[in-house]
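User: I'm designing a mutation panel for M18 family aminopeptidase and want to avoid disrupting the core. Could you give me a predicted structure to guide residue selection? Please restate the sequence first so the numbering is unambiguous.

Assistant: Good idea. Sequence first, for numbering, then the predicted structure tokens:
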Amino acid sequence: MSQSDLLERLLDFLRRSPTPWHAVANMAARLEAAGFRRLDEGAAWRLAPGERVYVTRNDSSIIALQLPRETLSMLRMIGAHTDSPGLRLKPNAAQIAAGWLQLGVEAYGGVLLAPWFDRDLGLAGRVHVRHPDGRLEGVLLHVDRPVAIIPSLAIHLDREVNNGRPLNVQTQMAPVFLQGGDRPDLERLLLSWLTEQHGLTGVEILDFELAFHDMQPPARVGVEGELVAGARLDNLLSCFIGLEALLESDGSQGALLVANDHEEVGSASACGAQGPFLGDVLRRVNAQLGEAGDEGFIRLIQASRMISCDNAHALHPNFPDRHDAAHGPAINGGPVIKVNANQRYATNSATAAMFRDLCREAREPVQTFAARADMACGSTIGPITATELGVPTLDVGVAQWAMHSIRETAGGRDVASLTRVLTAFCNRPQLA
């Protein structure tokens, strides 16, 4: 596996995945190109040992399964999430101020707001339309050019701005969209973009879920290109690494990749980690290929392991005091095991030991992150999945800076490093 080729695939994936729906569509395309068969949740499933299949829910969450060639007795599970913090349009978004058509937004997740000012913004998401024959359809929209901006207020009009000022998404962050525009112009423009991208004519827009995205493309940064900078590294980077590992594995063992939507807002949805998506899929698969009944399902879960992948806070050279001195992971220092005594991360000594042994096997370094005792840490799908299923779980990730910013930074070498470790996980015959 060439690191340069791997990073080029990553940059392309980030460019083409401005929303969870686009990310899932792009992941599904790669799975199908590799021979995975799409399953429909609303249809009866017919599964065969050794088959490779995938299924989506809400078009924003996806599960890919590499079924074992023998009886299903354990699964090597990799978890990630498809959503990222950002600014999403409100349903009645159009508003007029000072001769400008602006679009009202709300914050999705814990957005780092300041970096959103003065950025070239595109628009992307999902639009549901009614065709002239009455048929309803959901289509993806990706306006891949600058159509909006959130201008800063000049320092001359706010002399205290550099002393710290709270930002109000409702009153201060509506992007400017069209000079002299009126409310019907938004629907007119959406219809024209749908015609341009999908050839749709005569359709009526019924509803949409749209978000702004940064138009600056992802890039390799640094004198030696040692960094990767771009939007939505949290957590499309983990989705990409998990997918690469699954596709790179030898196919000899039962393995699964799940990428849930809605992690950034708590995971409580039909397609989130707190919802039934993963459990539904596992029960259907076990009913056909495993030991039948509740007893068989519990045995499958307890024999399996879940590695929840979500990025970790790298030691920041300008703010070293924000880390515990013994637990500040370095960018390009290898995968990071995330630990929290209060179960904000699902890692325990048994699952951590397994991961350390995988790193030894893959000849990759390993690091540990634990937050300062006087600071709260975030969480992941790891504890939620462990709670819902009971599967032994740990949390790991790639170290990154600027988590939840419009542009985040991680290490290029770490991408290949974690991919190799997860590939070894997918290939490992025994998990205990």
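For picking mutation sites, this is relevant: The mean pLDDT is 96. The two ends are 28 Å apart (CA to CA).
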